[in-house]
Design brief:
- The chain is of the alpha+beta class.
- It has three domains: about 100 residues, Nucleic acid-binding proteins (OB fold (Dihydrolipoamide Acetyltransferase, E2P)); about 270 residues, 2-Layer Sandwich (BirA Bifunctional Protein, domain 2), CATH 3.30.930; about 120 residues, Gyrase A, domain 2, CATH 3.30.1360.
- It contains 15 helices and 22 strands.
- It has an eight-stranded mixed beta sheet with strand order 6-9-10-22-21-20-17-11, with helices on both faces.
- The longest helix has 23 residues.
Length: about 600
Amino acid sequence: MERTHFNGTLTKENIGQDVVLVGWVSKWRNLGSLLFIDLRDRSGIIQVVVRRASENNDPSFQAPECPDVRNEYVVQVFGKVEAKAVENKALKTGAIEVVASKVVLINKAQTTPLIIDDETDALEDVRLKYRYLDLRRPVMQERLITRAKIVKAFHEYLDENGFLEIETPLLTLSTPGGARDFLVPSRVHPGHFYALPQSPQIFKQLFMIGGLERYYQIARCFRDEDLRADRQPDFTQVDIEMSFLDQDQVLTLMEGALAKVFKTVKGIDLKLPLRRLEYLEAVNRYGSDKPDTRYGFELQDVHPLFTESAFEAFKTASSIKAVVVPGIAKATSRKVLDELNLIARKYHLKGVTPLKVEGGVLTGSFTKFLSEKETQGLFKALSLKEDDLVILAGGSDNTDVCFALGAIRIYFAKSLNLIKPNTFDLLWVVHFPLFEINDAGKLVSAHHQFTRPCQEDLPLLDSDPIKVFAQAFDIVINGYEAGGGSMRIYDHDVQYKIFEVLGMSEEDIKKQFGFFIDAFNYGTPPHGGLAFGLDRLAMILSGTDNIRDVIAFPKNLASVCPLTKAPGTVEPKQTEELSIAITKMEKDS
């Protein structure tokens, strides 16, 4: 197929040149003597003009060969580049057009079920069902181009810094992790299963024990968990591990990778070193372990003001925090306050306590519980001004209180349009807890079982493990966790101790991690690493808030692929070969 140029690359410098172009008909306008075709390929759109009659009634004029065209027909155009009489500044190629001498029809197209343009009226499941058409939209192509640029920048930086790209297995052993494994039955070994990796964690550490020192991989990972806007059951991460570096050196090296990505993709020079926030400071100031610091409304501790409160819930609360939103008290409706209570309930609080500064005094139903001392204390502690809205929250769990107000902080930032578009806020959150209590009341790893405890906290593993902190870190961009990692345990006894604290028996340890523990007996170097979420990073740099927008063929929120209809049923013979019996099957809807 002959082609001389990509459509979007033509400029005024090409005026007078003969060109051959290919692409899809984005739009067409038939004016009788003139036919205008907006011809689209991946690089952009160029206007093609087909002159069907002479402007001066020239008897020698011969109309160019041109078939009937419609939207999304695939065509080839032969013609000459000319300057436009009136420039279209909304189009990259708007100063020029191609006057066709011949148009060849390559393929026809039916009327598409969605508009092929940056703005489309199709629902997401329609877009996913016809993803091959959705991918023709320029905005979708730009997002995937951004993703490809991110990958290229990581490759270049990591290659330059001595990292080796090495693959790890996709069929591995099922081990306990943060989510359910996707299991793959073995035909050769009936009743036995492989698991798809939630991450290459164990193997990347074995690379360090193997002396490879610096590893990376654009790794496919799989987690069988409930979905939301920024999660997928199969996803991609830039997986990295390195030996003989301390935490500061790891973070510095990885900041360089981010600087390379931002310069390559956005043309932005990051100011290094990036800020580092302690986990506890992030939670207590911003109500989040992934804070967006582009706007204010920081949490403030007002617990000392209420030690003798007439409001029993505050008097007995171990944590009381406040958020002040200036200048909106009069405009804040009951509906908004009800929404704030709904947010609070998601974090195990009964609700929040709103107060308004009106006419120089505090107003609201809660004021009947306030003493003059408490009122003046709030004015002073929070530097209150006229028309300020004050949101108080209290409870027995400081994390719940902080996270509830953190979510309310985000709510107001978005509803008041305080976040400037095309701005980026990067920081590290460090020094995370090693353990947490899950919904079942069980002690579990906050990150994973191989995270190195802080040296000074090792004695607490026996006496009070929930107070142990870790050498763990997250990279946070615009309020999203864009990556995370830790320094790893490299001592056999410490690793064994962590398993014991998590309630694993010696038999469980040997069965699930025996090969890994054994490797620690043969000279394990100090090492650490992290993984950048490629999908999430592409989402942030593309300016969307939906991770499905930057994945070529994603699943929907029901974990279904509308295009292929996966997951689907299989023939009985296939399950028989795998020694699997289907005991109950829901009727296909």
